[in-house]
Amino acid sequence: MSQQLVIQLARFGDLVQTKRLLLSLCAEPGSEVHLCLDESLAPLARLLYPLVHLHPVCAHGTALARLPAEEQARILLAKNVPAFRELADIPFERIYNLNFSPLNYRVAGLFEPQRVLGHVWSKGQEIVGQWARLAMRWSSMRRIGLNIADFWAWHHVSPVDSAEVNPPALGRGGGLGVVMAGRESRRSLPPKVLASLVTALLDLRGDESLTLLGSRAEHHAARQLERELPGRHARVLRNLCGATNWSGLVETVGGLDLVLTPDTGTMHLAAHLGVPVLATFLSSAWCFETGPYGQGHMVLQANLDCTPCLESQPCTSQVACLRPFGESGLLRYLSTREEGHLPDGLTAFNSDTDALGQTFAPLAGPDPQADLRVSFREFLAAHLGLAGQGRASSVLHELAERLYTERDWQAPDRESSQGRWGQTFGGF
Amino acid sequence: MLPLYGGSLPIGRYCASALRQLGHLVEVFEAPDFYPSYKALQGLKVGTDRLQYLENSYLQVLSQAVLSKVETFEPDLVLAQAQAPLSIQALKRLKRDGVATAMWFVEDFRLFTYWKGFAPHYDIFAVIQREPFLEELKDIGVSNALYLPLAAHPEVHKPLELSAAERRRFGSDVSFMGAGYANRRVAFRELIRHDFKLWGTDWDGDTVLAPFVQMGGARMSSEDCVRIFNATRVNINLHSSVQAKELVTNGDFMNPRTFEIAACRAFQLVDRRGLMPAAFAEDDLATFASMEELQDKIRHYLEHGEEREAIAARGQARVLREHTYAARMQTLLDFTAQRLPGWPRPRARAQAAEGLTPELAADIEVLLDRLALPADTSFEDLVWSIRQQQGRLGELEAAVLFLDEWRKLYNKREG
Lengths: 428, 415
Hints:
The complex is a heterodimer. Chain A has 17 helices and 14 strands. Chain A is an alpha/beta fold. Chain A has 3 domains: about 1-160, Rossmann fold, CATH 3.40.50; about 175-370, Rossmann fold (3-Layer(aba) Sandwich), CATH 3.40.50.2000; about 370-410, no CATH class. The longest helix of chain A is centred in the N-terminal third of the chain and has 21 residues, at about 70-90. Chain B has 16 helices and 9 strands. Chain B is of the alpha/beta class. Chain B has 3 domains: about 10-145, no CATH class; about 165-325, Rossmann fold (3-Layer(aba) Sandwich); about 360-415, no CATH class. The longest helix of chain B has 26 residues, at about 50-75.
């Protein structure tokens, strides 16, 4: 039996997007898969990954941060020391350390560096593995992008088929669900804009039920939405913001026909459950990086010169990417699916999968980077040993020059294209 | 900051160890690790212009590495030795960032003249010679120069119980341990009538001395040097000179061996030095001022074991009292505090075990003990000490580092 550990200390959505890697590890014959995660997400992980052994640690802590320093130390040490001891005692064959975070590096310090992939701690030094370094470079070319679930999965030599990760999207009869906001406020539609979309969808689909989802923080926005809706829809509305625990959320989302959502953890949960998603991606959200995983989902992607932006930087365009979501043409497009109605600044994408992972195909609107994206995926497929070396082309050559650095070429690295297969330079 | 290479390398290590003994947190820049790469450049067989360019570039990279380390470690003081790879540009950057720098220049200023270009860039410049060196330093704008003679490190330089085999291997009536400088090569031809052993490097090419050179002239470890000092009846300590006209030069500074042999409670015959009277009383050491006196005293002391022991005991007591690296480092730090206003910058520091449950506090105390840290060690110093550990982290070590990073993440957000 081989024991494998995944360290995923990020948020709700990231936990769901770790699925392909976890499934790939579970599919290894005789493997026992462990997951180290924030304690707040353990109940959800038990529902999502019942076969995986969980190791909750205290990593998140907006509430803890308000406590005096001594109290913080007491709580974090009391919780984490036993959890770390338990982890250190298990003879893991490989450790997949996924997040580029100082917290992850410290957990990795519990293990022999040569067993750790991704983000390694060696003699007090943080080291980024070659695959993650490559991802950092392609992330600077924001418009191409690889789905983060696939990026994590490809730490594994042969992850499970992307089409097998989530069930194909299929409505469950529970009506329309609307996720009120994500963690990043600029990525979400304000209640007034959202109200027109919700009204159009309800009228179009004839849903008799409307469920609002979100945390307690979104309760007020949900009330505003309710006020904006026509009476016939407001009457069938259930506001569950802040009212569900993890199992309640899974049960609710799992019964819906369609989830209208920005880029949120709930969106990934719906995809995980095979519930169709209609996602609104604007501001820093880019569907090729974090779009809903699986087949049969739709994304309305803001497509201005400035998108995707960096959430950490202030917007100097008065969030112009929000405008097309409020235009009446969008409602007509959703009703007719005629491309001519789709407002400028939007592209509608349909989700699909290929050998590399999650893709999105344009249904309507411009997709000027489509060719470049194909080349990028060919480049990555060749890098990962999926298919030959791709077609010889000037674009592929340019990508190689841009994405490969001297260090990749010159210094041995366990996570390099050949290192993935246990090969080193000259290892015939 | 250790030098890339050279005889003063052990002194850097003794300084780090002594500072730790004094309760300070020390991070060592291991410059010798980079020396093989630097040397490899000389194997390129390229034009001299290119070689110089490459060597300078490599040294600049090392300076950048030092700056990165300073940025992460945030030391109160960067202590360098001559030949430590710290460029003027890097020294200027440290000055701009308010990081104090000190150089302990443990070389002869008359031979190693490069100090003229570098000394003014250090905040503190400690030397092993007095006048006219201190005056010359003042002339080029060095206002914080400190006379700081060499010393011994009693953790290493100590009396040893040697086995019979070790006594046979390292012992003799008379021996010398050191490099084959010109004056020594001539002087020691007069010692070969004794049961004589010659240890250390750079003795090749001398047919008279060759039969007495031990271990093929290999560089000896500090530990083996101590064995030699302990096993020898009369350790000769003749200060080096690059000329052979005057064999006993009556120079000023005292070499490390003066202190090291004494700290071992071993007996030495050392040539008199100008700065010796301030460090040792007349009867703390047995000295000589000429080759004739050396010959006479060797004969005398070989015959009078009780006198050897009495002098060695006094010498050792004096060194342990006044001439340890710990004492030198304390002097350096006191001088720095006196000369640099506001140094060291006060830091808000909570003790590592403060406010924890009794069980966790006990665990932290065990960890501090294992890391040889005092009980009142601050949380920040504990974090750095853990980072200096090799191999896998223990659960408490990982949890302490995790807590440190967690605070940086969340307190920044909340702040």
